[in-house]
Amino acid sequence: MNIVWLKRDIRTIDHEPLFWAENQKEDYIIIYILEPKLISHTDTSIRHLHFIYNSILDVNNELKKFNRQVNIFFASGENVFNYLTTKYQVSNVFSYKESGVNLSWQRDKKVLKTLNKNRVKWKQFDNQGVLRGIKDRVGWDKNWFSYINSSVVKNKFSKTSFKIEKSMYDFTIEKIPELKIYPKEFQPAGQEFAIKYLNSFINERGKNYGKNISYPEKSRISCGRLSTYLSWGNLSLRYVYQLVKKSGTYKFHKRSFDTFLARLKWRSHFIQKFEVDCSYEFNCINSGYEKMIYENNDEYLDKWKKGETGFPIVDASMRCLINNGWLNFRMRAMLVSFLCHHLHQDWRRGVYHMAKLFLDYEPGIHYTQFQMQAGVTGINSIRIYNPIKQSIEKDPDATFIKKWIPELKEVPKELIHKPWELSQIDLIDKNEVKKYAKPVVDVKLNNNKTKNQLWQLRRNIFVKRESSKILRIHVRPK
Question: Are residues 266 and 292 in the same domain?
């Protein structure tokens, strides 16, 4: 038999490993491996497992008419493949390449040794226009457009009567009982809902994409809301891109949809960075910034994590994330900026917390973007978001703030962005408002220690050399 190994590609549409498996002489099984070491890693949370598990259930629902299913194993990848290749005569394993964290990369290397030992071929397919093993970006753009415009794979499934025996590595819901009930606050998981979200975006919601992208409340409707489905592979990037471009609404709202399509390329660009160097997870990609000295106040960090900093837009954004795992890009960037530049925290002190909260957590985007917003790459602008300015500009009616900070519901929108300016007269009979957190740092935000260090290091000769190296690899080879 052959094996199709699903990772971040839990779907049946536009799936090359499944297509290849269907076109071999041998029958095949489909597997997903929940690996204890990976799911206990500090970047993973139960909400991720909820989405993965329910995405698999969705695929199984579609495949049952073919007597097929995704077999879920609960063990290390090495043990699972050692068991399968010993128990059965396995010819090939088909999967996509995963641009994951260092831990998953080390896992893949162990799996490869196991497969080689048992003389099993492992065919891995490029994913999302991301290339493995490249040394610079020469020809990368051309390759990406070639991928994104190539034919979508038309997957067809044959019926099978083949079943594998139960094993000690099989997953049962009792091993993670929290997965029994999917939280209603999260976006519904699976390919079926992914397509519904995509169609509603194309037919109606996307018309105001460019206009509303930076507004925390309006973006919840106007943004694609496809990031979670792309991150866990319920949709392929190519399928989304082509469906948008071929739609009837595209030509009438071209500017807005082109803004969206550009971000699909942006997405692959950042994942490519991480594919080339997954040390982004642990180290400043520009090692010159390891000289940064942060205050790293534990109390500040704790209040930031809970959404109790006393700055309404910051707290509303964090509470929103805690509740449902999605936030628009501008507010994500502001949260990182506030952590690093105003609370003077090392980016590593917050990076895993937000990874766990994002339902759409994608390592290639998460770590590269976190460092970019923290200002430690040496090649990007140092963006220091003023939360008060962001609050007034992006939530002028305080719709988002009042939704997530019930303590401030009674405060007029003219005063809500700076609750510390409320007078004793304003606070009469407003007991809930009095419960809201006091600002953790001076509201003037004039403490420029972090900013001054960042700019000072930017002029450092070692930082400049590192910046040139990064640019040669990821942006301008010449």
Answer: no
Using one digit for the tens of pLDDT, what is the confidence trace for 184-209? 999 999 999 999 999 999 999 999 99
Q: Are residues 286 and 258 in the same domain?
A: no
Same domain, 344 and 466: yes
340-353 tens-digit pLDDT: 999 999 999 999 99
- Cα–Cα distance list, 293 to 135, 352, 442 (Å): 32, 20, 20
- The DSSP secondary structure of 311-333, one letter per residue, reads -HHHHHHHHHHHHHS---HHHHH
pTM: 0.96
Please give the tally of structural domains in the chain: 3
> For the chain, what's the residue count?
478
* Surface-to-core class of residue 176, CB atoms within 10 Å of its CB (0-12 exposed, 13-18 middle, 19+ buried): middle
**Rounded to the nearest 10 degrees, what angle do helices 329-337 and 348-357 cross at?**
150
Domain ranges, residue 95:
2-125
Residue with tokens 């044959």: 158
Residue 104's closest CA among 161, 41, 154, 159?
Answer: 41
